UniProtKB/TrEMBL annotation:
Provenance organism: Aminobacter anthyllidis
SUPFAM superfamilies attached to this UniProt entry: YjgF-like
Name used for this protein in its record: RidA family protein
Pfam assignment, any one: Ribonuc_L-PSP
Family membership noted in the UniProt record: Belongs to the RutC family.
Alphabetical list of InterPro entries matching this protein: RidA_CS, RutC-like_sf, YjgF/YER057c/UK114, YoaB-like
Domain of life: Bacteria
Length: 115
């Protein structure tokens, strides 16, 4: 049985399958076009909110995939990430450079968590 979190016509913010939570790619809304650090801070907050709706927290993250529009912003993204992640409880993570849907998006983050 599937549980969809905030479904709309194109996607759901997350889909729960058994004890696994598959989180859709989250991008900045309010800070779109601003620095990658600011966008990452907002995206991580949105990720927290989606996880809460699934009944878990960032402590439940198993894997995170981070897409940067420009890898030269890796340090900015990590500034926000390092303040957000719980020391000793970091999920597995991959960070890649990828063209994102809009030119003013600098970062997109998706994840898999467990209940």
């Amino acid at each position: 049985m599937l549980e969809r979190i905030n479904p709309d016509a194109r996607w759901s913010d997350a889909v729960v399958v058994g004890n696994l939570i598959f989180v859709a790619g989250h991008t900045a809304e309010k800070t779109r076009g601003q620095s990658v650090r600011e966008q990452t801070e907002e995206v991580l907050q949105l990720l927290d909110e989606t996880l809460a709706q699934a009944g878990v927290t960032k402590r439940n993250l198993a894997m995170v995939q981070i897409y940067l529009a420009d890898m030269s912003n890796f340090d900015q993204m990590n500034e926000a990430w390092d303040r957000w992640v719980i020391p000793g409880e970091a999920p597995a993570r991959a960070t890649v450079e990828s063209r994102l849907a809009y030119p003013d998006l600098g970062v997109e983050i998706t994840a898999v968590a467990s209940r």
